[in-house]
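Let us work through a complete example step by step.
Step 1: write down the sequence.
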Amino acid sequence: MRKVFIESLFVIVGMVITIPYMIWPTPFLMFLFVFVAQPCFLFAIVSALIEIFRDLRKKKVI
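Step 2: predict the structure and record it as tokens.
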């Protein structure tokens, strides 16, 4: 359950900020997109890659 739960929460937070910014690009939404949504996406991608790498090492694929 933990493998993608935290990553999916960060992606959901990023999308909740990104969708209104794409529809109504205001300065406040741009601020949230740049300083909250993009780091959320980055954290989700990096942590998912770390989990994939750990899983592959545990199964002795790499």
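Step 3: interpret the result. The chain has a mean pLDDT of 94.
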